[in-house]
Amino acid sequence: MMQDDKVIVCEKLTKRFGDFIATNEITFDVHRGEIFGFLGANGAGKTTAMRMLCGLSSPSSGKATIAGYDVYTQTEQIKKNIGYMSQKFSLYENLTVRENIEFFGGIYGLSDERIQSKTEELLQRLGLKTEANKLVGSLPLGWKQKLSFSVAVLHEPKIVFLDEPTGGVDPVTRRQFWDMIYQAADSGITVFVTTHYMDEAEYCNRISIMVDGRMEVLDTPTNLKSSFRARSMDEVFYQLARGAKRGD
Questions:
Q1: 248 in a domain, yes or no?
Q2: Is the model's pTM score more than 0.85?
Q3: Which residue has the higher pLDDT, 193 or 2?
């Protein structure tokens, strides 16, 4: 990959809460169109790091740019250039499918004409034309998930942040969701995803694993499994949790 296609650049990014260091000098780059997995146990610092990258929390020290914008001084520009989806999906359950799409299109600053064309395109692609006027709250979980992801990339952001996006759905739906992630990455959108499903980690181009606020390892799934003499990412994660180092 070319050096100038970096859309996330972090250098010793740190967040302290009093004496507690939640995220400790993390340094990494993410490239345009890359699917970047950000893994770690609860309390490892993933959510704190993601909040800083999304412009929602100011770092204590270090440097970072997101889509070329500084995390200290240009948070509003960052928010306009990213999409975000959490495990809670961020949809309004008391609005219809169509109303949700139109609402978020407006939030993202799309023109009325673009919102209408995007809405029809999205309903067609997801097979939701007959459900367009149904309340989102009435949809099955898997459909909510697909709709939420589609809304998060409606404005064609440079980066989409996915925080545990596939929790609670069946394996078939998870696989379909990852097909959507691949399509987004193929279109040039960078995907930054946290997950606790280790099989999903293997779908990523590269993976970083956080342990106690530090970025312990960063590499491709194949290289990590080779370094830890592991057959799966589950084994890699287990060895790291026990304090093992690469090549031990």
A1: no
A2: yes
A3: 193
